[in-house]
Amino acid sequence: MATTTNATQEFVPIKEVRDGIVLLKDGGMRAILLCSSLNFSLKAEDERNAILMQFQDFLNSLDFSIEILVQSRKLDIRPYIALLENQLKAQTNNLMKIQVREYIEFIKNFTENTNIMTKNFFIVVPYSPAFINTGAVGGIGSKLGLSTPKEKAGNAEASFEETRSQLEERLSVVEQGLVRTGIRVARLGTEEIIELFYKAFNPGETEKPIKTI
């Protein structure tokens, strides 16, 4: 019995990441916001109630769905250790060398015996356009493959910009609502989104050795 091996990409619904927007294979779009956290336990009771009310008003104001994602990962201390080791090599003072070496050992032992986790908070804002054929000639021509490459590219670009403007409106609503609750937000760019997905699909990469300068 013949078997076929499918590439991993075939199971991922992402077509490409463009201008900080995730384009899905079904035509949908996603934008991702990185959100700060609030130390709720340190707030006074009145502040807590105010934050909860603001967040409730924010959720009630939405007429579209959003996805709240919390990413927990073990802290990768290796880049910091590599930086310290480079500083150690550059030291000319023997006393400073001893202190830096002891500090490196302390950090290594501490992180090995303590499970230190980092948390990142994201909000995914979606938009899926409704595909409607307007114009019988254009619809038939498209089905028969009569559209020229230039026409197809122009239509795709126009569709992208139109859909993008709708997504931008939703992003503005989400950003303003979160800022009112005291949460800082930053929109992820193309490279940041690619890095986020790469780490999500390749969690073992953090276990591999890193190169030091």
Describe the structure.
The chain has 213 residues and is an alpha+beta fold. The chain folds into two domains: 8-75 and 118-207, no CATH class; 76-115. It is 48% helix and 18% strand. Strands 1, 2, 3, 4, 5 and 6 form a six-stranded antiparallel sheet that branches. Helix 1 (45-61) packs antiparallel against helix 5 and helix 2 (78-90) runs antiparallel to helix 3. The longest helix has 32 residues, at 149-180. The termini are far apart.
Mean pLDDT: 80
Q: Could you say which structural class the secondary elements and strand pairing correspond to?
A: alpha+beta
**What share of the residues lie within helices?**
40-55%
Percentage of residues in strands: 15-25%
Overall outline: extended
Q: Quote the distance from N terminus to C terminus.
A: 51 Å
Q: How large, in whole angstroms, is the Cα Rg?
A: 25 Å
Number of domains: 2
Question: Could you give the topology of this structure?
Answer:
Elements: E1 14-18, E2 21-24, E3 29-35, H1 45-61, E4 67-74, H2 78-90, H3 94-113, E5 117-127, H4 136-143, H5 149-180, E6 185-187, H6 190-201
Antiparallel strand pairs: 1-2, 2-3, 3-5, 3-6, 4-5
Provide a short characterization of the protein structure.
The protein is α+β, with helices and mostly antiparallel strands and 213 residues long. It is built from 6 helices and 6 strands; from the N terminus they run E-E-E-H-E-H-H-E-H-H-E-H.
